[in-house]
Amino acid sequence: MEYIILVMFGMVIGSFLNVCICRIPKEESISYPPSHCTNCNHRLMPLDMIPIFSFVFLGRKCRYCKEKISFQYPIVEALNCVLYILIFSKYGISIAALKYCIFTSILSVISVIDYKTQYIYRSTTIFGAICGFLFLVVQFIVYKNGAFDSIIGGIVGFLIIKIIVVITKGMGDGDAEIAAVCGLFLGIKGILIGLFLGIIIGGIIGIAVIILRLKKLKDKIAFAPFIAIGAFISMMWANGILEWYMKLFL
Q: Of 27, 28, 70, 153, whose CB has the highest number of CB atoms within 10 Å?
């Protein structure tokens, strides 16, 4: 029963994330006007907005203008469900689970927007930083620790990517900002592992798309998704990765 509720909750939040993904680049309010077709602007009814199911039952078309609906919608909704299930499977019903669900949702919005537009909007990183600081305060009040580690993690995350930006010109300041947000949520150990994984994964995929001629060497490749992937892996399995590394090399 808990997982059924979690799946429903994950899909509903995923639907809201799609609203953010579509509206933030247009600098539109995420709360008004109500949900509507992006092609004909017809207001959507409740039956049009059932996560995943409406996409299937409507045949991937708007009920009113028959414009095709992007696969982004069910993918984000389904992915959000899966990520929430993984988080709750590890952390149970806890402050940590709530913290990491919010963190993951923020990363999802930033990543998809960056993938689509090659731009990280400061409003998203500011919101992420505010959430990170709020959970930092909660963690300090409840557990009496973690605040210093989170602050240092944010600073370290920002500085690592900022140095790469200055040296290579291959990233933007938005990447440094999202790294800072990740550091606030993950702490110093988590952000170091997360950025290492993100850079490795990004490098491998970047080389692959160039070899396959999907991108040219001079083309921009969104890096926020790789930071997000590295951060999520670190969030879930940092201790295991560190133990494996220590056994392998030390």
A: 153
